[in-house]
Predict the 3D structure of the following.
Amino acid sequence: MTAAAVDFTVANNETWDLGFVLKDASGAAVNLTGRTIKMQLRDPAAPANIVVELSTDNERIVIADAPAGVWALAVPVSVAQGVPNGSYVYDVIDYLANDPRVWRRQKGTVTVEWGVTVR
């Protein structure tokens, strides 16, 4: 299955609260009821190192409308400040607790800009 390519930009001095819709290969929204969503940012120059992990388990991803496939980043500024400015690769997987299958639905590049002003 081909993951949807979505690139986006955030700053490391702001809350990351962007919304997305997970879709299947046919373009239909995935019902997220009972699913775990997980996303990792990695530096392409050092792909073994996870820069930051976001998931429904650590509450840095929230499911906003499960039947419609709507989810959002919920990354507090305290976490964002720990991410150095740069360009990172990511992908998004989802799965059900009692199902061994894992779906890769989204991929892309996240550009983290240096945020000058801090609270």
Summary: The radius of gyration is 14 Å. The chain has a mean pLDDT of 96.
